[in-house]
Structures are given as structure tokens and as C-alpha cells.
Design a protein that fits this description.
With 512 residues, the chain is α+β, with helices and mostly antiparallel strands. Helix content is 18%, strand content 38%. Among the domains are: 130 residues, no CATH class; 136 residues, Methylamine Dehydrogenase, Chain H (7 Propeller), CATH 2.130.10.
């Protein structure tokens, strides 16, 4: 098989288009014949063709590595298979070629004048080869420290204590307490409660009533369990039923506590939002937003803007701003044109981040009805959007990319590609040093956000044509049957990450 330079140009142009680098793609477009190829062959090239092509090159290098000089295949052991499957990457493939065919070092009249690397290039090239195993490009495999039964949802407590809540088979709520012991996680206690026997939670006939949302209060003393039938059950950390809030008539999609623990904002699939008093269980405000021409969900998230204001999805992609005690919105944010997929308020800069099915992210400043930033680049649904600091946000998408955006420069500043595998969820650690993503193939990747922010600061936060690559801290793949990742949850100290799968047991991994 061979490939011409024009064909390679077209693959690179397609990659730039898919990655949201329009300026780079335009520059390449002006100097090549890529538009002719697009017109003739574009429909035959799927998304991610260049990445797929490179992967096939890696597989060729893999096969070459496994065959001895005499043509016999290297004997494979279980240890070899684990190391081989986890650690082989593009960097290692290039390293193999570099060892076979070392680079020709520019010396003498071919060396750049004043280049300090030229004088000791051979020495540094030789010395760097044995250090490859310690290079940060080698991704480490994260260690699984605990496993619990299949759960509809699992969430770490917001307390400093290691308490993991999960809802298991037959609506069994389990509260497990752990402790650190010699680099391992030991379960010290487990409290069990049968939600199915609680009036209003139990079902008749063959109706199902699963838990759709688990959300701890900021102080970690109460746990809200949103149900499929619309009920909201409040449970204490010491395993006691506190209240059952009944008003929703359909499955609850989102539950958010106010920062002072006094109110809960809940939202269901019929676009009904309710404000609850957590002490009395009283519904203080009810908002029913319906579009007579459509039955679709307006959004899947809600958010508090302090202790007395909140936002909920509105019609046609709008965001409605309400105050406690007011039945009419005090503001309406227009810009998005489709279902809202995420909302997050930054308490430090007082700005709201939103994401939508219209494939954009927007930043809203306090006191303004117009977005101050609008980020384009994702080609499929945005599945997560969060603030990294007061100036940068991170997003994930079904298009298999993780992107970091700068509000100051209104541009993308960092990017990670995951071979086109859809990313279903993402979660930033409480200390904001790491970001985890869960993919459709069941793999979890953790990125080193603190290192990325250091690199951006070293670069003076400048926006170059090529975004920085997001450093990877490590990854994890469950050894059980394939299933996709539902949710991710960090403990309050950012040491452990729970991974909720669609069909298999919940894994807890160490991220230190």
C-alpha cells in the first residue's frame, strides 16, 4: 500500500477540519488540491480517517515487534499480554524505529550556528534512549483498589470521610465507609437500607422505579435520591430516612443543593423544576415549561447562582434566571438554539458556563443577558463542561475530543483526541488538578490538569495556531465484560475515583 503527498494533504486537511482548526485548514486548502479531493472522494472518508490510518501503522509496528529475526513469533505470557496491551502507543512505536535507525545528527557545517544542542547531540541522544521508560509520554495504568456490586449510581460523600453511596439490586442503598491503609483502601463498615419498602418508592405490578440521580448535600450530612417515578428521597449519612418529597410526575434528571444546604432544586424529564425547603420538605416554587409543538427535554441540568438565585432550561435553548420567591424570571439568556446539556456557575468570577446540543459552549457574565464568549469546535454532542479556573473551561464530546478553552483569548488552547471513541462523561477532581473521562468502550482516562495549566502559564497564555496537548496522568480499563461508563465520582480529597458502568461492577481506582 502507498499514499501520495496529495492524499496525505487531504487526510491532514480533514483532520484539521474535524479538530476545529479552521485557520490551519484554510491555509492548507489554499496551497493544495484538497478541495478537488473533497468533491470527488469526500463522502468515502469517515470521520477520524487520519487517526485510523496512524493506528494501522502502529499495528504494523506491533506485528513487526512480535516477530523474531528468524520469522518465529515471540512466545506470549500473561504478563507480556498485560504490558503489551497497556503500554504500547505511538510514542513507543516511534521509539522502536529510533532505536533501529538513529537520527542523523547535524554536525560540522550542517549544524546551526550557536546551537548548544549540536555540540552534545550524540551524547544526549544516547543518554535519552535508556530513559524512555521514565518518560511522561508513557501512560501508566491506574490501580483498582476496590470493587462493589453493579449499581444504578455511585457517589462519594462531600465530607472528608471516605463514604461511598451506591444503589444496588432491588433498590438497596449502601453506604460504605473506607480507610487508607498501606496504599490500599479498606472497607470498615457498610450500612444497608431497602428503598423499595418505603411508601411512595415501592411499585406495584411490574413497574420499574430505579434511582436516576444521587446527590450529596455540600455538608455531607444528607443524600438526595431522585427516583424514576418522580419522588425525591432524602437520606442521612447515618442511614436514616429524613423525608420523601413528592410532586414530580416523571423521572428526575437533575438535583442541585444550595450552598447553605437549605434548598434543593430538582428537574424532571417533563421540564418541571421545583424548589424545595429541605427542613420541612415543602415545595416552595414550581415551574412547568412546555412547548406545545415539541415534547423534547429542554435540558438535563440546573444550577444555583448563589443562595437565592438559580437557572433552569427554557424554551428553544434559552436559560431562565429566577430568584427565590419570584414566580417570573428575572432574566433570560438567549444564544443557544438546542437542548442544554450542562450548566456550571463559577463562584469566584461570578460567571456561568453553559453547553448545548447546538455544539457550542457559552460564557455569561453576571448582569448581562448576552454571552461574553461562544466556543465552537465540537462536531457532536457535548457531554461535559466545567470550569478549570477563573479563566479556562474544559469540555468533552461524543466526537471523542477533550478541549480546553480560554475566555481571555476566546480560543481553544489545549486538545486531546481519544481515537474517535465517544466520551460519555467527565469529572474534574475537587482540587482541580486532574480531569477524568469515561468512554463508550469502558476505558477511563485521567488527565493532568495542573501540568497543563503550568505549561500554559509558561507560554504566557498565548494562543498559538496549534493547541497544546493535554498531558495524560494514567488510564484504567476494567477486566470485566465490555460496558460503557455511566458516571464518575471523586472523593473529597481527590485520591480515589469511582467508575459506574452500565452492566458491570463499580470500580474504585487510586489516582495518586
Amino acid at each position: 500500500m502507498s499514499i501520495t503527498s496529495e492524499e496525505l494533504n487531504y487526510l491532514i486537511w480533514r483532520y484539521l477540519q474535524e479538530s476545529g482548526k479552521e485557520l490551519s485548514a484554510l491555509a492548507l486548502q489554499e496551497d493544495t488540491r484538497v478541495l478537488e479531493f473533497e468533491e470527488r472522494f469526500g463522502e468515502h472518508f469517515p470521520i477520524g480517517s487520519l487517526v485510523n490510518f496512524v493506528q494501522r501503522g502502529i499495528l504494523y509496528t506491533e506485528a513487526d515487534l512480535m516477530v523474531k529475526g528468524d520469522g518465529s513469533v515471540i512466545e506470549q505470557s500473561e504478563e507480556f499480554d498485560q504490558s503489551y496491551g497497556k503500554n504500547f502507543s505511538l510514542i513507543q512505536a516511534l521509539e522502536i524505529d529510533r532505536q533501529k535507525y538513529p537520527e542523523i545528527v547535524a554536525e560540522g557545517r550542517f549544524a546551526l550556528a550557536g546551537d548548544p544542542a549540536a555540540s552534545d547531540a550524540m551524547t544526549s541522544a544516547k543518554s535519552s534512549m535508556p530513559e524512555t521508560a521514565n518518560n511522561q509520554d508513557f501512560i501508566k495504568t491506574l490501580k483498582e483498589v476496590s470493587k462493589i456490586p453493579v449499581s444504578a449510581s455511585a457517589q462519594w460523600s462531600t465530607k472528608s470521610e471516605l463514604i461511598l453511596a451506591s444503589v444496588e439490586q432491588n433498590l438497596t442503598l449502601a453506604l460504605r465507609t473506607y480507610k487508607n491503609e498501606e496504599e490500599s483502601l479498606i472497607e470498615t463498615s457498610k450500612l444497608i437500607a431497602q428503598l423499595s419498602i418505603i411508601p411512595g418508592v415501592s411499585t406495584t405490578n411490574s413497574e420499574s422505579n430505579e434511582v436516576t440521580v444521587l446527590e450529596w448535600a455540600p455538608d455531607g450530612n444528607l443524600l438526595a435520591c431522585g427516583m424514576e417515578n418522580g419522588n425525591l428521597v432524602l437520606w442521612s449519612a447515618n442511614n436514616k430516612l429524613c423525608n420523601i418529597l413528592t410532586l414530580h410526575r416523571s423521572a428526575i434528571l437533575a438535583v442541585k443543593w444550595s450552598s447553605d444546604n437549605s434548598h434543593i432544586l430538582s428537574y424532571d424529564v417533563q421540564n418541571t423544576a421545583v424548589i424545595w425547603n429541605t427542613s420541612t420538605g415543602t415545595a416552595l416554587q414550581i415551574f412547568e415549561l412546555k412547548d406545545d409543538n415539541s415534547s423534547e427535554v429542554l435540558g438535563v441540568d440546573v444550577e444555583w447562582l448563589g443562595v437565592d438565585k438559580f437557572v433552569i432550561p427554557g424554551l428553544q435553548g434559552s436559560i431562565l434566571v429566577y430568584s427565590l420567591g419570584e414566580n417570573k424570571p428575572v432574566g433570560k439568556l438567549l444564544g443557544h438554539t438546542a437542548t442544554l446539556t450542562g450548566l456550571e456557575f463559577n463562584t469566584k468570577n461570578r460567571m456561568l458556563l453553559s453547553s448545548s446540543e447546538d455544539l457550542t459552549l457559552r460564557i455569561w457574565r453576571s448582569g448581562s443577558i448576552n454571552s461574553s464568549n461562544c466556543f465552537y469546535g465540537h462536531s457532536q454532542s457535548i457531554t461535559c463542561a466545567q470550569w478549570l479556573d477563573e479563566e479556562k473551561v474544559i469540555s468533552t464530546s461524543m466526537d471523542g475530543t477533550v478541549r480546553v478553552w480560554s475566555c481571555r483569548s476566546n480560543a481553544q488552547v489545549a486538545l486531546a483526541l481519544v481515537d474517535g471513541t465517544p466520551i460519555l462523561c467527565g469529572s474534574l477532581s475537587p482540587d482541580k488538578t486532574k480531569f477524568a473521562i469515561g468512554k463508550m468502550d469502558g476505558e477511563v482516562t485521567v488527565y493532568e490538569i495542573s501540568l497543563l495549566l503550568d505549561k500554559l502559564r509558561d507560554n504566557g497564555n498565548s494562543t498559538s495556531v496549534q493547541p497544546l496537548s493535554i498531558p495524560i496522568f494514567g488510564d484504567f480499563q476494567s477486566d470485566e465484560a465490555e460496558s460503557y461508563v455511566n458516571t464518575l465520582s471523586w472523593d473529597s480529597e481527590s485520591q480515589y475515583l469511582s467508575i459506574n458502568y452500565s452492566q458491570t461492577k463499580v470500580s474504585v481506582i487510586s489516582v495518586e
